[in-house]
Amino acid sequence: MAQMKVEYLVLGMVSTNCWLIQNTDTMELIFIDPADNAKELIRHAERLEAKPAAILLTHGHFDHILAADELRKHFDIPVYVQELDEEVLEDPALNLSGNWGTAYSMQADHQVKDKDELEIAGFRIRVLHTPGHTQGSCCYYFPDEQVLVSGDTLFAQSYGRVDFPTSSPAAMRSSIHRLLSELPEETAVLPGHEMTTSIAMEKRYNPLA
Questions:
Q1: Which residues pair with 149 in a beta bridge?
Q2: Which residue, 22, 108, 121, 157, is the most exposed by fewest CB within 10 angstroms?
Q3: Helices in 76-168 by DSSP H: which ranges?
């Protein structure tokens, strides 16, 4: 099993958690939800002596994607997104960038779907499609390490907003129920905003549990 090192930077106008998942055996690195400030992320990767391998997006909202294209070009690495959120990436009205500043759009290199198994940087990563916050929101589950990067689906004692374009309260409830029923209680949850949690904690305290 690969040795995992997890770090994060809080970036952007709405304090997004950008996760950096590193295989310390190979020094390969995965960026998950690179909010903005690509230069700071590049500097941080260099301090880690990392070999960036990929960028994973949990969904297409502007506060999770603004550094993705610059990182992709700098390190020559691919961007992954759930297939239904490609539309969100490409449309400033859906990714909300036009509401907060300059309209922004981009395209991913790879579209993934529910239950896809990715092999990146020596890690086995399972894609869990968890609509609710957006139509193509997803979580990335590292089963060997029991780590879930949950984006804006599952928060500590909370969950992502469901009042945006392509949001669905009913889908969010179903997605939360799925995560809490399918994943081991020991699973560490790394959300898109604020503090970390665990599946065990959310089974007890999440309002949608």
A1: 140, 190
A2: 157
A3: 86-90, 92-95, 97-100
What b-and-e string marks burial along 153-185, b requiring 16 or more CB atoms within 10 Å of the CB? bbbbebbbebebebbbeebbeebbeebbeebee
Structure tokens at 154: 């599952």
Distance separating alpha carbons of residues 88 and 139, to the nearest angstrom? 16
**Whole-number Cα distances in Å, 155 to 2, 24, 56, 99, 174:** 26, 27, 18, 24, 15
Dig out the tokens for 134 from the structure.
């957006």
Adjacent-strand bridge partners of 151: 191
> What's the rounded Cα separation, in Å, for the pair 7 and 19?
6
